[in-house]
Amino acid sequence: MPLRSGVFYPAALADRGVQHVPMSQLTGRIIGSAIKIHRRLGPGLLESAYESCLAYELDLQGLRVVRQKAVPLIYEKVKLDCGFRADLLVDNRVVVELKCKELVHPVDEVQLLSHLRLLGLQVGLLINFHVVCLHEGIRRIVNNYQEPENPREDF
């Protein structure tokens, strides 16, 4: 199944039996997939290449993935299309922003936090593939995240 921008990739989700994954496991799966890709391809490719590979890996795991998710801006009760896009939206719960640059700047973290606020989500991952060891390029950003009282109710 070809991966296209702005499309869910639920390849045979009915056959896989979609399950609700706790947030810590979901982000762990995303990070693990990113590390797998980085180990195979290394740094130096375009952001779009890593985005395609990560969407593919997550789809194989039965996770719903939307590439280049439009991020709406509501200003004074008017929805404005400003062209904001999140690189990946995973399971409608985690925004993943990918970078391929020497240094991640504070504005990159603010951009992800803004996307989380505008989408009404709590957790995002900022992943910079332009590093020797990917662990150094991963940042978890939270927007008023609260651990659920009952671990089974983790969202």
Q: Would you write up a description of this structure?
A:
33% of the residues lie in helices and 23% in strands. It has 155 residues and is α+β, with helices and mostly antiparallel strands. It has a single domain, classed as Trna Endonuclease, Chain: A, domain 1, CATH 3.40.1350. The strands form two sheets. The chain has a five-stranded mixed sheet, sandwiched between helices. Strand 2 and strand 3 (78-80) form a beta hairpin. The longest helix has 19 residues, at 23-41. The two termini are 28 Å apart.
Write the layout of secondary structure elements.
Elements: H1 13-16, H2 23-41, H3 47-60, E1 65-70, E2 73-75, E3 78-80, E4 85-90, E5 94-99, H4 106-119, E6 123-128, E7 138-142
Parallel strand pairs: 5-6
Antiparallel strand pairs: 1-4, 2-3, 4-5, 6-7
Helix pairs in contact: 2-3
Which keywords apply here?
single chain, 155 residues, alpha+beta, two-stranded antiparallel ribbon, disordered N terminus
- Please tell me the total number of domains: 1
Intertermini distance:
28 Å
Q: CATH class, please? A: Alpha Beta
Give the spatial strand order of the biggest sheet. 1-4-5-6-7
CATH architecture: 3-Layer(aba) Sandwich
CATH topology: Trna Endonuclease, Chain: A, domain 1
Strand runs, count: 7
Biggest sheet layout:
5 strands, mixed
Element order: H for helix, E for strand = HHHEEEEEHEE
Mean pLDDT: 84
Rg value: 15 Å
Helical amount among residues, as a percent range?
25-40%
Alpha plus pi helix count:
4
Unreliable runs, pLDDT <50, ≥5 residues?
Answer: 1-17
User: Could you tell me the strand content as a percent range?
Assistant: 15-25%
Judging from the principal axes of the Cα atoms, what is the shape? globular
Oligomer: single chain
